């Protein structure tokens, strides 16, 4: 296969990394490891254990983190 199809990981080994970066910027990709750690910590600190969900997108996780930060104050 050629590099004419950059979305195909086998054609372009960097395609997966590029797509993950784009997803993180758009909010559609999975939450980052840092977000996961912070969300777990905030959910525990605020007693909002249901706030953590490992399947959250980057954007959903960021919104919950912001809400929990404000709730913690």
Mind explaining what this structure looks like?
- By secondary structure, the protein is an all-alpha fold.
- It has three helices and no strands.
- It has helices at residues 15-26, 33-46, 58-72.
- Helix 2 runs parallel beside helix 3.
- The longest helix is centred in the C-terminal third of the chain and has 15 residues, at 58-72.
Which helices and strands, and how do they pair?
Layout: H1 15-26, H2 33-46, H3 58-72
Helix pairs in contact: 2-3
Q: What integer value in Å does the Rg equal?
A: 16 Å
Give a short account of the largest sheet: none
Question: Pairing-aware structural class of the strands and helices?
Answer: mainly alpha
Straight-line distance between termini:
54 Å
Low-confidence parts: 1-19
Structure annotation, total helices: 3
- Strand proportion: under 5%
- Binned, the helix content reads 55-70%
**Total count of domains:** 2
* Mean pLDDT value: 76
- What is the tally of beta strands? 0
Q: Please provide the ordered H/E string of secondary-structure elements.
A: HHH
Which overall shape is indicated by the principal axes computed on the Cα atoms? globular
Task: Looking at this protein, list some descriptive labels.
73 residues, mainly alpha
Give a quick precis of the structure.
The chain has helices at residues 15-26, 33-46, 58-72.
């Amino acid at each position: 296969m050629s590099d004419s199809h950059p979305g195909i990981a086998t054609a372009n080994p960097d395609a997966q990394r590029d797509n993950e970066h784009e997803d993180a910027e758009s909010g559609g990709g999975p939450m980052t490891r840092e977000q996961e750690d912070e969300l777990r910590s905030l959910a525990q600190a605020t007693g909002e254990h249901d706030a953590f969900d490992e399947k959250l997108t980057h954007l959903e996780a960021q919104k919950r983190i912001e809400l929990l930060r404000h709730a913690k104050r």
